[in-house]
Amino acid sequence: xxxxxxxxxxxxxxxxxxxxxxxxxxxxxxxxxxxxxxxxxxxxxxxxxxxxxxxxxxxxxxxxxxxxxxxxxxxxxxxxxxxxxxxxxxxxxxxxxxxxxxxxxxxxxxxxxxxxxxxxxxxxxxxxxxxxxxxxxxxxxxxxxxxxxxxxxxxxxxxxxxxxxxxxxxxxxxxxxxxxxxxxxxxxxxxxxxxxxxxxxxxxxxxxxxxxxxxxxxxxxxxxxxxxxxxxxxxxxxxxxxxxxxxxxxxxxxxxxxxxxxxxxxxxxxxxxxx
Length: 275
Ligand code: NAP
Description:
CATH topology of the largest domain: Rossmann fold
Largest sheet: 7 strands, parallel
Shape: elongated
Distance between the termini: 20 Å
Bound molecules: NADP nicotinamide-adenine-dinucleotide phosphate
Low-confidence stretches: 269-275
Helix content: 25-40%
Order of helices and strands: EHEHEHEHEHEHEHEEEEHEH
CATH superfamily of the largest domain: NAD(P)-binding Rossmann-like Domain
Strand content: 15-25%
Number of domains: 2
CATH architecture of the largest domain: 3-Layer(aba) Sandwich
């Protein structure tokens, strides 16, 4: 049985990569797109890389009501993705959210709607398998190295800072790290912002430069030693295995799950995981 998918953001970098991934997987089937432009056109009319006669809708509600779908995949911007997802869940369409930068309040709202409608939803700030492992290793290391700084680096078109991955890493680290004030108690910035953002004393630094994709280092310090856990996404293909996994997994869910580490853990013994 194939999984019918609607994508929002088909002209974006992630959206067009996801369309290729779906086309290359015989178990997945793209049935419609949501786009703020090109209402009423077919995908092949706007995307030269595909010959898909998939309709494009500007209005998400009309799209979900007109085209039956198993999974909605959002790859847009935070406020738009939030509105799309609310509508999808209210229309009882399972949702996978790649869009990063949702606030805690937005995630709470979506959690409530998913639970009330018993619809699966996965939000993942980072779908790259290596990035998920980086976060898990960082959580483990924080038990022994409570002094931590994070440097996250992204392309200069990214809207949110710090990245969702950095904030998710901190969430996971806080599960094992004892609260601690880092650095000198009388430290002063002579240039505002030079010590970065601060969550529970953990410093976060966001770099934005052309040429970068998505990169993060978690640096731990302890007397006489440092430990660095580093992950680099070199292109957007790096996120596609995780998106594919999430599309398949959301079919079995009836609530919202935040973070791919909650998806990957239960399948650690899956013999097909390296395929
Ligand atoms: P992108 O190339 O800028 O694409 C964004 C898409 O959203 C475009 O199709 C854009 O259409 C659309 N959009 C922007 N504003 C809109 C609006 N007001 N209404 C409707 N559509 C709108 O960005 P990207 O690199 O593909 O990234 C997309 C999202 O994925 C971002 O949130 C990014 O942070 C996230 N991301 C997540 C992961 C992960 O692993 N979870 C990895 C990489 C990126 P227009 O061209 O008309 O503006």
